[in-house]
TrEMBL record:
Assembly information from the UniProt record: Heterotetramer of two alpha and two beta chains arranged as a dimer of alpha/beta heterodimers.
Transmembrane segments: none
Region forming the signal peptide: 1-23
Identification of the protein by name: beta-aspartyl-peptidase
Species whose genome carries this gene: Solanum bulbocastanum (Wild potato)
Active-site residues (renumbered): T214
Amino acid sequence: MKKHLFLFTILIFSKALVNEVRASLQYPVVVSTWPFLEAVRAAWNAVDGGFSAVDAVVEGCSACEKLRCDGTVGPGGSPDENGETTLDAMVMDGVTMEVGAVAAMRYVPEGIKAAKLVLEYTKHTMLVGDQASAFAISMGFPGPTNLSSVESIEKWTKWKDNSCQPNFRKNVIPRDSCGPFHPNGPSIRRCLMDNELRPNEFGSVNVGLHSHDTISMAVIDQIGRIAVGTSTNGATFKIPGRVGDGPIAGSSAYADGEVGACGATGDGDIMMRFLPCYQAVENMRLGMEPKLAAKDAIARIARKYPNFIGALFAVNRNGTHAVAAFGLRDLNWTSLAANILD
């Protein structure tokens, strides 16, 4: 297993005066992918103020959306092939196992809060596209709103000027222009293991410090309830309609109040094929410590996709946490941090 080469921030905040139960179980806990300190602080302030784990996760991810963390969360970033920004988000209650998610959502800038609406006011798990937008607006959210920004349009324009390269197309013609694209011969001619043996060139080049796509956050609240949430504006220059791992329970995040939680980041198109966060939580259910649970979940992907780029954290119900990662050898590593505030 390669060294951890993804940036994670894990903050465990506790008051100086806590009872023995809270001290021994290390509650509350806020864990997040990437060094989005303001998002983690927002979640901490919420959970320390008595918010539930679900509400604290929403507060944290919402802060990241408003800050447009690294241009990959919230409105104004990651344009698709048409130059439009769309949002994916998910929240999961580890007590009830309920999930609310939105995917490829247009016109509404608050992805995580829209996902919470699905959780609270529907019997569904996920709403997608324009109908997700219509639902959020019907429930009182402002809109429709243009989710593009000056920066995202400039990025898209430069990409168009570069003949729309790199992109997520494969086995199509023309290869070096902006389309329209057509299949390049029958797919039956492709080698069965072609995907596994050929490097994922787009992901290897473009998953990095400013294109890693997702905040994934887990919270254990003051009484031990666990929740997770994610928010992202997806892969830059994605094919319109693409949904990554962000809103998929078990892939980008998963929580079970009896066991613990997991959050992930990286090449979502690969990760969602393996449900690594579900695997990590199930590993902990079987008795693995978080470090081994996370490492095993990542290793299962890396064995099939040696050019895969991704990472995840695992935290058990007692607050013990660990991280495993694979890839990004050229990215400077910032070590895992645990900060305690009195």
